[in-house]
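Try this one yourself first.
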């Protein structure tokens, strides 16, 4: 049974790789980074992952947009523009019908898997501490209090 042996090898490699990634890198990152990477890997790593599983990315995309609007717009923290553009581009291509419309059906899944891995790699390399999770003060907490009249 070569397929059974291959699936067991895949399972062992994925479990060992994920455990190492979590222990040595993910647990040290801010919660927003952990959420995005964990959801991207949750969609990417199973034996079969059909297109409907991409809906799990919507909540972490919303958290990323809130992070940009609330924290980065206030000037803290600073993340590289190229990284933000790469993350947004990955989300846009994953949510849009581009792989299904412009590529052959047999390659769309591979393109989406590559985009998910690119998203996970980018988010792993760019820490994004957020006031949404209490990792830094909220923008309103930084403003000096006005004297009452």
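Now uncover the answer:
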């Amino acid at each position: 049974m070569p397929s059974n042996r291959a699936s067991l090898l895949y399972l062992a490699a994925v479990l060992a790789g994920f455990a190492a990634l979590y222990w040595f890198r993910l647990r040290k990152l801010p919660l927003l980074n952990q959420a995005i990477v964990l959801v991207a890997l949750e969609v990417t790593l199973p034996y079969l992952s059909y297109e409907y599983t991409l809906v799990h990315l919507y909540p972490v995309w919303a958290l990323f947009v809130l992070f940009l609007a609330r924290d980065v717009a206030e000037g803290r923290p600073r993340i590289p523009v190229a990284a933000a553009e790469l993350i947004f581009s990955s989300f846009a291509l994953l949510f849009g019908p581009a792989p299904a419309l412009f590529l052959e059906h047999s390659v769309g899944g591979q393109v989406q898997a590559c985009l998910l891995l690119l998203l996970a790699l980018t988010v792993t390399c760019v820490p994004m501490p957020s006031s949404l999770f209490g990792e830094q003060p909220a923008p309103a907490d930084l403003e000096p209090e006005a004297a009452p009249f």
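Discussion: The mean pLDDT is 84. The helical segments are 2-24, 31-44, 57-72, 81-95, 98-102, 105-125, 139-142.
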